[in-house]
Amino acid sequence: MVVGSIARDTWVKGDRDLDVFMLFSPDLPRETLEKEGLALARSIARQFTDTLFEKYAEHPYINATIDSIDVDLVPCYNVKSAAHIQSAVDRTPFHTRYITEKINGLTDDVLLLKRFAKAGGIYGSDQMTEGFSGYLCELLVLHYGGFTQLLEAASGWGPHQKIDIERHGAKEFSEPLVVIDPVDPRRNVAAAVSIDRMAEFVELARGYREAPSEAFFELPVVTPVSKDELAAILASRGTSLYAVTFATPPFIDEIVVPQLRRSTGAVSDLLTRNGFVVHHAHYQMGKERCMLLFELLTDELPPIRRHEGPPVWNRTNAEKFREKYRDATLPGPFVENGRYVMEVPREFRFAADLLSSKELLNVGVGRHVRASFEKDWCVLEGADCWDEAFAGFIAGFFSRCSPLVRIKRGSAGRK
User: Fold this and answer.
1) Looking at the structure, do residues 130 and 251 belong to the same domain, yes or no?
2) pLDDT per position as a tens digit, 4-24
3) Low-confidence residues of the chain, pLDDT below 70?
4) Which range of residues forms the domain containing residue 82?
5) pTM over the 0.90 mark
6) Are residues 80 and 143 in the same domain?
7) Which end of the chain is least crowded, N or C, by CB within 10 Å?
């Protein structure tokens, strides 16, 4: 069964992906489904191409490139209803059937919304984007009855907006946007949408309604930054830039990207705890390497730091603290606001030393990121952070703005 936008006639020009599901009897054991499904998918793909990979979502499937088209061959169970699914992918054929039956004359509105979301940089439920999936776009158009009606409604959205087309929701959700799946009352179709992507959609809806323009449907063009341009940016900002790069873990984006997000936060916290103020941090997954990028307000600190001890009236701990530092050459222990305070030597004066140390292995980075770290990682500084493979990412790092601001700036620049 062909599923997705191709099957529903909501395919957007430029997309080059095809989803083919292979429906097996629900009586088949899970292990047999995976084994026979993969074997069948692999044999089909090999009739057309040698470029194929085994990937893993809830269970394995085959991804192949055929005539420049990205094809997923996915085994699933042919269950009677979404209430009887045995794996997450079993739900997808029901999505296709539902939209196909209900779309009735709203195809163009769906295409407008998808293009609108793509141009705004908020299309895609992948971990990097955290935005609007194609199925979500279709449901929003169905619910509101058209593209224009949706934008009118979205202009007034706020956090925890809830939409239940079939009025059958069987669970409470905490995500910013809740759209109950018409074929599964216990699933939020909009679970991937972050609060930022939702806010950006609201902003775009308001901006378009105030001043409709084709600019809202023009795909953003990313201009990569050169090494010299990066050096000039850093000189003008007076900040310090550091990149931590390492081999990309051999797993799909949906597994690696959340670990990159977690790792970026963990390393930012490590820098902050050691006195290095992080102004901005982000991450990027490349085919061969990943990059964690940090802009610091300072990357060099004095050789001493302040170390707070226990309150004096916490007798046992206070006495231990006082005795520990009794013979220290630095000032202290002294009493300040009722507790002991001591000046101690700083372990890491330079951010580069901290980022190059084994401390990175002691913070809460993702499991697969840690495995890459344990093999090796590289710390780059200043304009040396530039890498051709990450030139677009670095450019975006220093030119971030909301989608509506970007569109208005582009429109002003063309006048």
Assistant:
1) no
2) 888 888 888 878 889 999 999
3) 57, 413-415
4) 1-90
5) no
6) no
7) C
